[in-house]
Design a protein that fits this description.
The structure holds two protein chains of two kinds. By secondary structure, chain A is an all-alpha fold. In chain A, 75% of the residues lie in helices and 1% in strands. Chain A has 19 helices and three strands. Chain A has a two-stranded antiparallel sheet with strand order 2-3. In chain A, strand 2 (332-333) and strand 3 form a beta hairpin. In chain A, helix 9 (206-215) runs antiparallel to helix 11, helix 10 packs antiparallel against helix 17 and helix 13 crosses helix 14. Chain A is globular. In chain A, 47% of the residues are buried. Residues 387-399 of chain A have low confidence and may be disordered. Chain B is α/β, with parallel strands linked by helices. In chain B, 43% of the residues lie in helices and 15% in strands. Chain B has eleven helices and seven strands. Chain B has helices at 2-8, 15-20, 42-50, 94-105, 120-133, 144-149, 156-163, 178-190, 205-221, 228-237, 240-248; strands at 30-36, 67-73, 76-82, 110-116, 137-142, 152-154, 167-169. Chain B has a six-stranded mixed sheet, with helices on both faces. In chain B, strand 2 (67-73) and strand 3 form a beta hairpin. The longest helix of chain B is centred in the C-terminal third of the chain and has 17 residues, at 205-221. Chain B is globular, with a radius of gyration of 18 Å. The chains are: A mainly alpha, B alpha/beta. At the A-B interface, helix 1, helix 2, strand 1, helix 5 and helix 6 of A face helix 5, strand 6, helix 7, helix 9 and helix 10 of B.
Chain lengths: 477, 261
């Protein structure tokens, strides 16, 4: 019986095969032709176009400008600069305000309440000095820049600008042997690298898709923008006259972002010439019409989707990280804390990179989320520099209520302009967060490529910061 | 014919296939698929229908995976699946295959095709391909506000007659036309509105005999299969996926179960 059924199925296939030979290969084309013809016929019957001379055509006028060969890239840089300038200048005041409430008012209240209830000191240490302060830090340092940056970025996205960025960069990607659509996945990476890695599914060729996945980390993500903005404000802005501070620090963040794009070209080129050799495939990219952004809706979604999402992630990871920081700072072997052991032992290496042991330890603790790098750095700096005057003791975050206080903490910790610059570079060039690494593994189903994607950027980061530090010391000192 | 349409009108007549495709149909009566060209506002329509806040973006290819949600209309609960945007269902890229397999093997109770009103002709290419596969569809003529801005008018009633399915003009960003769309989906799902989908009319003489011949053989082998013409065409083109589905007998799952009288 079974055999009979199989036979009749085979019979159908056999006759289909035979007829296919008789019909020839034109069938596919003639079906498509028929579809197009019908579509045209129907459209011509139901679409009524106003023949009157159209008003000024905004779409193509804007497109001629922002995708022009000469002006396209400068306009992109300019737009990004304006966005960062507004963010940097606008974030100062609300940052102070939030820190004043969370750290200046609530923190002492929590401490005194805990003392009044005679809570054991290690419990209040772990929970209030560790977890709560880490969280408060994240909120006060990161919320204001995010609440300004993300809505503006989302407005640009809604308006339809990002595909134009892709259009501008598409030619370069093709030249370096990658897929033009990588420009799109790269833009997605500016939001979140894990999302950018998933978005690489739009690329069909496995070779080009791998290149897109490995290089996505060179797009600064949500978690890293605040680091860039804060460090640029403190160190780059602090190094120039006050009236230039906003413009120059915004320009430096744009520089890092553009440097990231340059690295994604460079590494794509390197990969496509070595371990992922092959030709670039072609594709068509449709530029969507410009759409007037819905301001309120955008504010809402960028607040929920990005700001709150990033903040939530930061807080979730800041809580355990705060505990870990408190522990490495307070668990002592022979009177020296674990953190100090680590920091002291990597300091010589970190010095070569123009960084310091605190930063490297912070990047180890912050592997789960880039968002908590800065708070971790600050807590560890206080611990190492023993800033007892500011905080309540080792491993406890201190009361700072403005960006200038943050600056003074870092300067007391031995930071220089070079440390700031190299931290910005290292924040661009280091391993992806654990979520992204896991996503890369899931998307490629390969431990090898997950490891390559993790180690390659760190290696680049070491090389770049090393050379910057050496050259800096040669010429500046 | 009468029996078949009554059967197709049963709530989620095709639960087994849907479960196989990873759709949890536990608390739902009907399943609705959203198809359409890239950047026509599928995700915006999805959000408008479900009240979810899936991130939307003004660029093609934003949705690479299936998003799912649900809504209630009257007493019926609908599951809605947002498919990746594609220009056609004929070529072989992954996203096109996801969309095609879902419409073909998932047999959604209603397929809502989102079309960009400002680029109707090109969008119709996909609409016609979807109508070759399924006969329960609704055309959502989205971005009608933009079309007005560009002084394009569309006679939606004439279009509905041409295509044989309900055509609902919408501006999903402003929530315009969404109640009408919901009603149309419900009418098609419950069988109040019976679609008479447009089928490609162009006569390819040599082929029509072969198609008829194959169609007969296929319906003898798989009784109750609703879209034999399309499958015959795919076999003639040598579509490997369909050939395999025929070999393994998977095609039988597509048949509308014949209910004993």
């Amino acid at each position: 019986m079974n055999r009979l059924i199989n036979n009749s199925k085979d019979l159908i296939l056999a006759s289909a095969n035979k007829m296919r030979w008789e019909i020839g290969e034109s069938l596919h084309d003639s079906i498509i032709e028929a579809i197009y013809k019908d579509a045209e016929k129907i459209a011509s019957r139901v679409v009524i176009k106003d023949q009157a001379k159209p008003k000024f055509d905004w779409d193509s006028t804007i497109d001629r400008l922002v995708t022009s060969r000469v002006l396209g890239l400068p306009i992109m840089v300019l737009l990004l600069s304006v966005v960062f300038y507004i963010t940097i200048v606008g974030a100062n005041y609300p940052s102070d305000l939030i820190a004043d409430v969370l750290i200046g008012k609530i923190y002492p209240w929590l401490k005194s309440t805990a003392a009044a209830l005679s809570v054991p000191s290690w419990i209040s240490g772990v929970s209030i000095d560790g977890a709560y302060l880490a969280m408060a830090w994240v909120v006060s340092v990161m919320l204001p820049p995010m609440a300004i940056f993300f809505p503006m970025f989302t407005l640009l996205e809604d308006f339809g600008y990002l595909p134009r960025v892709a259009f501008n960069l598409d030619g370069i990607y093709k030249k370096v042997g990658a897929h033009g659509k990588q420009a799109l996945t790269m833009s997605m990476g500016f939001g979140c690298n894990a999302a950018g890695v998933i978005a690489a599914r739009i690329i069909d060729s496995p070779r080009e898709r791998l290149i897109a996945i490995i290089t996505n980390n060179f797009s600064l993500c949500n978690g890293r923008w605040p680091t860039q903005i804060l460090i640029a404000t403190i160190f780059i802005g602090g190094a120039v006259p006050a009236y230039l501070a906003g413009v120059v620090s915004a320009a430096s963040v744009v520089f890092i972002a553009v440097l990231g794009i340059a690295f994604s070209f460079l590494v794509s080129w390197g990969l496509s010439k070595t371990i992922l050799r092959g030709e670039a495939s072609t594709f068509s990219l449709e530029l969507p019409p410009y759409r007037p952004p819905r301001i309120l809706q955008t504010l809402y979604t960028s607040l929920i989707d990005r700001t709150i999402f990033v903040l939530r992630r930061a807080v979730i990871f800041a809580l355990p990280a705060g505990v870990v920081i408190w522990l490495v700072a307070n668990v002592k072997i022979d009177g020296i804390s674990i953190a100090e052991y680590f920091i002291d032992s990597v300091n010589p290496f970190a010095f070569l990179l123009g960084l310091n042991g605190v930063i490297l330890l912070a990047y180890v603790i912050a592997i789960p989320a880039n968002e908590i790098v800065i708070p971790t750095v600050l807590m560890l700096t206080v611990l190492v520099a023993k800033l007892h005057g500011i905080g309540a003791g080792a491993g406890v975050m201190f009361q700072t209520d403005s960006i200038s206080d943050t600056a003074s903490v870092l300067q007391t910790g031995g930071w220089t302009l070079l440390t700031g610059i190299n931290l910005m570079l290292f924040s661009l060039l280091h391993n992806p967060c654990s979520t992204t690494i896991y996503t890369i593994y899931k998307e490629t189903k390969s431990i090898k490529w997950a490891i390559v994607s993790t180690l390659l950027p760190i290696l680049l980061g070491f090389i770049v910061t090393f050379f910057v530090a050496q050259i800096w010391r040669l010429f500046v000192n | 014919m009468f029996d078949q349409s009554a059967c197709a009108a049963c709530p989620a007549h095709n639960i087994n296939n849907l479960v196989k495709l990873g759709i949890d149909m536990k608390n739902f009566d009907y399943v609705v698929a959203l198809a359409g060209n890239p950047n026509t506002g599928k995700s915006t329509v999805f959000n408008a229908l479900t009240g979810l806040k899936q991130h939307t973006g003004n660029w093609p290819g934003k949705t690479v995976t299936r998003a799912e949600g649900g809504f209630k209309y009257g007493t019926k609960k609908y599951k809605i699946v947002d498919l990746p945007g594609t220009y056609s269902l004929l070529s072989t890229s992954v996203d096109e295959e996801i969309a095609r397999d879902f419409i073909l093997f998932g047999q959604p109770d209603v397929t809502v095709i989102i079309a960009d009103a400002t680029r109707l002709e090109r969008n119709l290419n996909l609409v016609l391909q979807v109508l070759e596969i399924t006969d329960r569809a609704v055309l959502c003529l989205n971005l009608i506000d933009e079309a007005q801005r560009h002084r394009i008018k569309i006679d939606d009633r004439a279009l509905s007659k041409e295509l044989g399915i309900p055509v609902i003009p919408t501006a999903a960003r402003q929530n315009l036309g969404i109640p009408e769309l919901l009603k149309a989906i419900d009418e098609v799902a419950t069988g109040i509105y019976v679609c008479r989908p447009h089928r490609i009319t162009a006569e390819f003489r040599k082929v029509s005999r072969a198609v008829n011949d194959l169609q007969k053989k296929i319906s003898r082998e798989f009784p109750g299969l609703p879209n034999t013409r399309w499958i015959a065409l795919r076999l003639l083109e040598g579509d490997q996926k369909i050939i395999n589905a025929l070999k393994t007998g998977e095609l039988q799952n597509l048949a509308v179960n014949t209910v004993p009288d």
